[in-house]
Structures are given as structure tokens and as C-alpha cells.
Amino acid sequence: MNHFRLWALFASLACTMNGTALAAGDKAAILQRGAHVATEVCNACHSLKYLKYSDFLKLGFTKQQVDVMRGDRNMGDPLIAQMAPGDALAAFGIVPPDLSLMAKAREGGVGYIDSMITGFYTAANGNTDNHVFPGIKMPDILGISQADPTSRKALLVKAEDVSTFLGWAADPMAESRENLGYAVMAYVFVLTVLLYLLKRKIWKRLE
């Protein structure tokens, strides 16, 4: 292995890791936007009982921003629905499910949630229904069924953001495990190259 090929391998690895960092930055912004939708819209009826307000700090929010989101609740409190279960039952005929593990519970995960949120339409009888979940009790929270083409595009982005956030909420440590995997791969790669060079040096002496 000559020096040029070795340099090319290191450069390739550096580019890959840099691209991963950029992707992580983009995802952080998406997760923050999704967190706002989840707390300002979804949390009105749905709880995320396995998620605490302090967990938002992991997404890059400042404590001041989290303080605004949590209101009079403590940092260690879980995200409990603003609507009482009894009121939700009276309004919808069912208590809205907790969303903490929804991305894990539904086949299709984040994709299913996104399709369901954007699947609302106005039926022939004038009622709002859902392509993915016919007869759903949940209202069209984003107004997808009534949106014009211009506003619909922005609503689709918002739906994707909150779906991605719910995917994170179902497994907040997934990204940490992924980043650890990249670090381990980089370590193994560098170690392999060094051992290869050491082996070449030793065998060259023996020759």
C-alpha cells in the first residue's frame, strides 16, 4: 500500500465522518421543529409519558427554551396530555393513546405516523376521514384536508418533522449508539492500517 493510497483512504474516511456530522446537524434542526409541533399541537390530547422535559436538552434546546415549553411543570416531569382523560373520552369517545413508543408499536414506524397525519381528506358526505386509518377519531390536527396546494407543502414538512421527532422519542439513545458505531469503525480502520504497516516493516526486515 503506497502513501497515496493510504492518504486517499484517510481522506475518504474523513469525508464520510464529516458528511455524517452535517447530516446530524440537519436532523437536530428537524427534531427541534418536530418537538415544537409535538408540544404545541399533539400534547394537547396525547401524552409522551416516557419523555421528560429535561430530555429536550439532548436535542440542543437551551434551558430557557425548555422552560417556555414546560410552563409550570418541572424539568423532570413527563409530558402528560393537557386534556384530562375524562374530557378526551367525552370529546372523542376514546382516550388518545400515549405517543412515547408509537413509532415502535406501529409497523412502518415513522413512515406510518407521517402517512397517517397527512392522510386526512374530505369525504363525499363532507366528513373528514383518513386514508391510512379509516374512521379515526383524531381530528385533522394540521388541516391537511382543507389546505390549498401552497400551504399543504409547508404542512407536509411539519408532519414529517413531528413524525421524525416521535421516532426519536421512541428511542432517544439510537443516535448515540449510531455515533458510537462510527467511532468504533474509524478506530478499527486506523488500527488495521497501522498493523498492516507494522507487518510490512517487520516482514521487510526478515526478507
Describe the overall structure.
This protein is mainly alpha-helical and 207 residues long. Helices cover 59% and strands 6% of the residues. It has seven helices and four strands, in the order αβαβαααββαα. Strands 1-2 form a two-stranded antiparallel ribbon. Strands 3-4 form a two-stranded antiparallel sheet. The longest helix has 38 residues, at 3-40. Mean pLDDT is 86; it is low at 1-22.
Note the topology:
Blueprint: H1 3-40, E1 48-52, H2 63-70, E2 78-79, H3 85-92, H4 102-105, H5 109-117, E3 120-122, E4 128-130, H6 149-170, H7 174-206
Antiparallel strand pairs: 1-2, 3-4
- Spans of 5+ residues with little confidence (pLDDT < 50)? 1-22
CATH class: Mainly Alpha
Tally of individual helices: 7
Major sheet = 2 strands, antiparallel
- Helix content estimate: 55-70%
CATH superfamily: Cytochrome c-like domain
Radius of gyration, in angstroms, nearest whole number: 24 Å
Quickly list its features.
6% strand; mainly alpha; 4 strands; elongated; 207 residues; two-stranded antiparallel ribbon; Cytochrome Bc1 Complex, Chain D, domain 2
Give a short overview.
With 207 residues, the chain is mainly alpha-helical. It has helices spanning 3-40, 63-70, 85-92, 102-105, 109-117, 149-170, 174-206, and strands spanning 48-52, 78-79, 120-122, 128-130.
